[in-house]
Design a protein that fits this description.
Number of domains: 2
Shape: flat
Strand order of the largest sheet: 1-2-4-3
Oligomer: single chain
Radius of gyration: 24 Å
Length: 258
């Protein structure tokens, strides 16, 4: 990942189609086909930056990468665009590569101001400003926290002190309760919880379910057991996913009250 040529456009890091294909272990033709098949899901400025005409000329002038003179249109993929491409490819290699892109390429460490280079007056002003700003942030957080505690203290206590003697029963109970309180649909809340888990844990549960079914088949498991394999089975077998998902369900349960 460190060998990637860094490209920046509109104050963010981006990748060319060629770079994206190489990272994902694919080819540009497949990347383009996936994009054309799902164009309605992509938004210019959000998932990609499209350059042509004067905007392409300005980009060339920066000299960040060597472009063929024959190129008159260019797509630069943002982090969100890379996520959609990983979803289209739907392979373990692509998802692993996307996670590395997020950690090592798209997310940059922001540079900090060297306070020592400021004049004494500006140093004093910055200190005062930081102190006042920090106090305001802390006061706001304190007020919000007190309000939440006042509205849902008992529920929070019961949720986070609950013993997971039967983990699935506990999870189902919290989701059912949350759905009833909000008048929502249990299945929709379950789908939402899986979506949050995939985003937070940078994983694809569908792929993991298919992989688990394949492993069960290889070990001679019955068709019934294989067909009944669910995302909950995948989560329960992975301690990291289990911990993250439990937290998510608790957050959803509490969030319906506060």
């Amino acid at each position: 990942m460190s060998q990637l040529t860094i490209i920046e456009q509109n104050d963010q890091r981006v990748l060319t189609t060629q770079q994206l294909a190489e990272v994902y272990g694919s080819d540009t033709e497949r990347i383009v086909k996936n994009f054309n098949r799902n164009k309605e899901r992509y938004t210019n400025g959000k998932h990609f930056i499209f350059l042509e005409g004067d905007s392409l000329k300005e980009f060339r002038a920066k000299g960040q990468i060597d472009l063929s003179p024959n190129i008159n249109r260019l797509y630069l993929w943002t982090e969100k665009g890379a996520w959609l491409h990983a979803k289209s490819l739907n392979t373990d290699e692509a998802w692993d590569a996307y996670e590395m892109l997020v950690d090592d390429y798209y997310h940059q460490k922001q540079s900090q101001i060297d306070v020592q280079q400021l004049s004494p007056e500006l140093q004093m002003f910055k200190t005062i400003f930081d102190t006042v700003a920090q106090k305001q942030i802390e006061d706001t957080k304190r007020d919000e926290k007190l309000q939440k505690l006042e509205n849902g203290m008992n529920t929070i206590k019961e949720t986070f002190t609950k013993k997971d003697d039967d983990w699935r029963k506990s999870v189902n109970s919290m989701l059912n309760s949350a759905a009833k309180r909000t008048g929502g649909n249990y299945k929709d809340l379950r789908v939402e919880s899986y979506s949050i888990l995939e985003e937070r844990a940078k994983c694809n549960l569908t792929i993991r379910v298919n992989n688990l079914k394949q492993r069960l088949e290889e070990t001679g498991a019955t068709k019934t057991k294989i067909n009944n394999t669910t995302k909950m089975d995948v989560i329960e077998q992975d301690q990291r996913l289990k911990e993250i998902y439990t937290t998510i369900v608790k957050e959803l349960s509490i969030g319906t009250l506060i």
